[in-house]
Amino acid sequence: xxxxxxxxxxxxxxxxxxxxxxxxxxxxxxxxxxxxxxxxxxxxxxxxxxxxxxxxxxxxxxxxxxxxxxxxxxxxxxxxxxxxxxxxxxxxxxxxxxxxxxxxxxxxxxxxxxxxxxxxxxxxxxxxxxxxxxxxxxxxxxxxxxxxxxxxxxxxxxxxxxxxxxxxxxxxxxxxxxxxxxxxxxxxxxxxxxxxxxxxxx
Length: 202
Known about the structure:
Layout: E1 2-7, E2 10-15, H1 26-39, E3 45-50, E4 54-56, H2 61-65, H3 73-83, E5 87-92, E6 95-97, H4 101-105, E7 109-112, E8 117-119, H5 122-125, H6 133-141, H7 143-150, E9 156-157, H8 158-164, E10 169-170, H9 176-183, H10 185-189, H11 192-201
Helix pairs in contact: 1-3, 6-7
């Protein structure tokens, strides 16, 4: 349910469970961690996207009830992605919800389609967000807007997310992956150490 396409130093990772809104099982999260760990020494750019009309609805409901909602694998994934020396882009093909926020927040750049929605209903569900998510969210959009999402349960449109700084561009669905790949061209053509050095400086 996780598909990986390698085009030389450009890796595209796709959540491929559209019938379940790309909701994430522990096995899928473990696969994503393993791919991210491999990318650290092999990829110069990595695109994370989903199949269908939703990027991810967060945790699989059955597994969430069995403990996945608070499993440390979420934080392991976002931390592994955040530490990658390569350029990382979240190409959000649709709605981003719940625990799936972590992997998108950990990426360097976020693109989204016009009808995407953004919400993280931890207050309503009685869970805490992943430990690093509030910090990364606040760095992007500020503390008050982070509280709107995490404490007031606000659901953002793509345009609001762009205005807030949660995403960097709104892109037509047909052009989403081509745009993400175009943004990876310079990094893919550069020396891996040069990519890593610029990312460290930023």
